[in-house]
User: What shape does this take?
Amino acid sequence: MPKPLDVRSRSAFAARALAVIGMCAAIAFSGAACSSSLETSSESTPRTAPLKQDGGRSYEFEQDDYDAADEASPQVEDYCADAVSEAQRLGCESHVRPEDVP
Assistant: This one.
C-alpha cells in the first residue's frame, strides 16, 4: 500500500500546482493579446485581413503595407486594378511606386 503524503508534501504539491496553473493562464492570456494585434494596430482603425484567391484570409501584411496601399497614387491603383484577389491588390498597391509603372 502506498504511503500517504504528509501535510508538508501536500502543501508543496498544491503550491506547485497553483504556480503551473498560473503560468498557463498567463501564457494563454498573453497569446490572446498577441494574436489580436496581428490584424490591428493600436494607432489605427481595425482592418480585416484581405481575401486571397482561394477565399482564405491573408495575414502576411503589416500596418506599413496598409498605410502604403492607402497612399497609392491613382496611376498605381490603375496598374494594380487587374489583381485577382484583395491580397494581391494590397500587395501590389503597397509595393509598386509610380516610377515603376510602365
Notes: Residues 48-102 form one domain. The two ends are 85 Å apart (CA to CA). Residues 33-42 have pLDDT under 50 and may be disordered. The CA atoms of residues 76 and 98 lie 6 Å apart.
